[in-house]
Design brief:
The protein is globular. With 412 residues, it is an alpha+beta fold. The chain has 14 helices and 19 strands. A six-stranded mixed beta sheet has the order 17-16-18-15-14-19, sandwiched between helices. A five-stranded antiparallel beta sheet has the order 5-6-7-8-9, with helices on one face. A four-stranded mixed beta sheet has the order 2-1-13-12, covered by helices on one side. Helix content is 38%, strand content 22%. The chain folds into two domains: 126 residues, Copper amine oxidase-like, N-terminal domain (Copper Amine Oxidase, Chain A, domain 1), CATH 3.30.457; 264 residues, no CATH class. Helix 6 packs parallel to helix 10 and helix 7 packs parallel to helix 10.
């Protein structure tokens, strides 16, 4: 199972290269929205097909605040909640604490730190195009993700509601300024569950009971022969034993397959909106409050009927085999902030009464009560609440429920 856990938790791109550095056949220029970027006379170089540029100069041109860490020989750049970290002679870089593998390690040339241009530019949210004929790398500004955010106020208290997606790609960033400003102005970060904090061994054992069968049965006893055979086919493809998933409940196998399928297309929980703000809160020492807990969520899934769990698993098997996984349209929806698409998603969930009641209706009632508590107190604080976007709209959504209670809620 260690191999499976590795597949689900991390995804690395491996590159093979030689270490020879050569100058480009003619000077390479870099432009941003058709305006040439001034690199201070330090020409880009090409190493095994990767263009390297003076990191500090480029990052400052892209409006980052740049620091040099002499102890670790690392460049650290910050902009609108985005943090990039690159270390000399190390192919591992970080985007908001998420590991990325570089094709070529940053290096010092005549006292200047050079780093891969494409990595910096794409991580910063720019489209990158290469013109061989003109020897030009063109960066184009990409629109910031709009997302789903609402605001409500009472008694001097302010609550921002940000509808998130829990698994995302780096192209979700940057987030628009209004979202970052709302987070920065807040006293508290509220999330469904703090997935960034460690789980003690005793709690880990309790949680494990909620993801596996404890009555002597196995996955094979809870799903149809056809579904079980499809799972075995996938396990064979993953080079895992045919019974590797047998101990686990069908809903848990479902989420595991979704995670693998999403990672194949560059979507991970490490880039999710929730974890993005949790990591920032740790750096900013912002207090984190939970509207639910990991245990509560696992208990909910473990309580699903066998029929619903198999339905989830079938959907995940289809998603695993699909050329484009289900997370791609969700990502596109979040980037555009389309309420129409969000409502369609919620409507589709409502077609399954059991799932809709457990996932949204019951949980939204409890969440609204906590949000009302934040608004009705006399503390005069600001709360930045991040929960799944599907919780926001529809007949039983947080926004309509708060409005029914007399609160004014506006889309930001």
């Amino acid at each position: 199972m260690k191999k499976l856990a590795s597949l689900v938790v991390s995804f690395a791109l491996l590159f093979t290269f030689v270490t020879a550095v050569q100058a480009a056949p003619q000077p390479i220029s870099v432009s941003l929205d058709k305006e040439t970027i001034n690199l201070g006379g330090n020409e880009p170089i090409v190493e095994n097909g990767t263009t390297l540029v003076p990191a500090k100069l480029l990052l400052e041109q892209l409006d980052f605040i740049v620091q040099w860490d002499p102890e670790n020989k690392a460049v650290i750049a910050q902009k609108a909640g985005l943090v990039l970290s690159l270390q000399l002679d190390n192919t591992t870089a970080y985007i908001n604490d998420k590991e990325e593998t570089l094709p070529v390690a940053p290096k010092s040339i005549d006292g200047t730190a050079y780093a891969p241009l494409r990595f910096i530019s794409e991580a910063a949210g720019y489209h990158v195009a290469w013109s061989k004929a003109n020897q030009t790398v063109a960066l184009e500004t990409r629109d910031a993700s709009k997302g789903f955010m609402w605001k409500t106020e009472k008694n001097g208290n302010t609550v921002y509601l940000l509808g998130s997606i829990h698994i995302a790609g780096t192209d979700m960033y940057p987030l628009r300024k209004e979202i970052i400003d709302a987070y920065k102005s807040s006293d508290y970060l509220g999330v469904e569950a703090d997935i960034s904090k460690p789980v003690d061994p005793a709690m880990q054992k309790e949680l494990e009971k909620l993801v596996s069968y404890s009555d002597g049965t196995t996955l094979k006893d809870h799903v149809s022969p056809e579904t079980y055979a499809s799972v075995q086919e996938i396990l064979k493809e993953l080079e895992l034993p045919a019974n590797a998933f047998d101990p686990f409940m069908a809903w848990n196998v479902s989420t595991g397959l979704d995670g693998i399928a999403s990672q194949r297309q560059g979507f991970t929980a490490g880039s999710g909106i929730d974890l993005f703000f949790l990591q920032n809160a740790a750096v900013n020492n912002k207090e984190i409050i939970e509207l639910e807990s990991i245990q509560m969520q696992l208990e909910m899934f473990a309580g699903f009927s066998d029929e619903l769990q198999e339905q989830m698993l079938k959907g995940s098997i289809e998603n695993y085999k699909a050329e484009v996984t289900a997370i791609q349209p969700l990502s596109d929806m979040w980037k555009t902030g389309s309420e129409e698409q969000l409502l369609e998603l919620i409507k589709a969930t409502a077609e399954n009464e059991e799932m809709y009641k457990a996932l949204l209706v019951d949980r939204n009632i409890d969440m609204v009560e906590k949000i009302k508590g934040y608004l009705d107190n006399e503390e005069g604080k600001t709360y930045f609440i991040v929960v799944g976007a599907a919780h926001m709209l529809g007949e039983h959504g947080l926004v309509p429920l708060l409005e029914k209670e007399g609160y004014t809620v506006t889309r930001e």
